[in-house]
Specification:
Strand content: 35-45%
Distance between the termini: 28 Å
Low-confidence stretches: none
Shape: elongated
Mean pLDDT: 79
Number of helices: 1
Helix content: under 10%
Structural class: mainly beta
Order of helices and strands: EEEEEHEEEEEEE
Number of strands: 12
C-alpha cells in the first residue's frame, strides 16, 4: 500500500485492516465508546493490503546441504482474503500500527473468522 512517498509492504500470511472510525453500536442499539470496542473479542474492518501468503518449500530440493540452495523463484500458498473484503477477526490476534498518521491493524489470516466480499449495491 503506497501513501505519499513511502510504501507499506505486508509480509507472509497477514492482512492490513483499516480501523473502523466512529462509535460502534451494541446489540440493543447503544453506542459504545472506542475503549469498550477495543475490549471485544471480535472486530471487523476493511482489508486494504494483503501479504503474498505462506511460503512453500521446494519439493524437488532434497539436498543434504541446505545452505547450498540454487536461486529459485519464491512460491506461496495464495491468500483467501483480498483487498476490499470486509474481515471479521479475533481482536487479540491483531497488532495495531500507525502509518502516515492513520491507524491500521495487522491480522494473521488464521485469525480471520469470516470475509464479506462484494457490494450489495452491485446486485
Amino acid at each position: 500500500m503506497k501513501k505519499k512517498e513511502r510504501e507499506l509492504i505486508v509480509v507472509g500470511d497477514r492482512v492490513l485492516v483499516a480501523v473502523e472510525a466512529g462509535e460502534e453500536r451494541s446489540k440493543v442499539g447503544l453506542y459504545l465508546p472506542p475503549t469498550a470496542v477495543d475490549n471485544q473479542a471480535v472486530q471487523g474492518g476493511r482489508i486494504v493490503a494483503t501479504g503474498p501468503g505462506l511460503p512453500m518449500p521446494d519439493p524437488a530440493e532434497t539436498s543434504e546441504e541446505p545452505w547450498r540452495t540454487a536461486a529459485r523463484e519464491a512460491r506461496f500458498i495464495p491468500m483467501q482474503a483480498r483487498v476490499g473484503d470486509y474481515a471479521i477477526f479475533f481482536r487479540r490476534a491483531a497488532v495495531e500500527i500507525t502509518f502516515e498518521d492513520e491507524r491500521y491493524l495487522v491480522v494473521p489470516q488464521t485469525a480471520i473468522l469470516a470475509l464479506v466480499r462484494g457490494d450489495r449495491r452491485e446486485a
